[in-house]
Design brief:
about 150 residues; alpha+beta; six-stranded antiparallel barrel; 6 strands; about 30% helix; PilZ domain-containing protein
Amino acid sequence: MTNRHQPRTRTLLEARVVFNDRFSLIECTVRDLSDSGAQIAFAHPVTLPSQLELEIPKKGISTRARVAWSNGKTHGLTFISAADEKASSTFPALLAEPESPEMSSPQDASITSSALNIQNVLAEARNHIAQIAGVPADKIRLKLEIDQ
């Protein structure tokens, strides 16, 4: 619970967790929130799946999340960006850690940085389109073609 990379802001926001292909929805309260995660609470103890979608209507947020910890009524979530979900399968060679320092070059670092930036832009676009369309972000498919 203390391995946070970003400070969280205490809140009392109405929210809901959605899972089971959007067939299951449970109302909850967001107790604290950051760019990378949230702490949510329920009126009664709840067992959650390892991954779900968190919707916070007042903030216009709908994002995929991984359950980091659970304690009956209270759960810690880590937000999953589309880049996190897709990075290893989309750019496996670019995102792999170099085996030794001699094998990496400034050009390799630039390529890896570019791949991560592209994934971040696509993830932001996917989330924005999903909010506008009123659908889950994981239902949005973006295709990027680069002509050279």
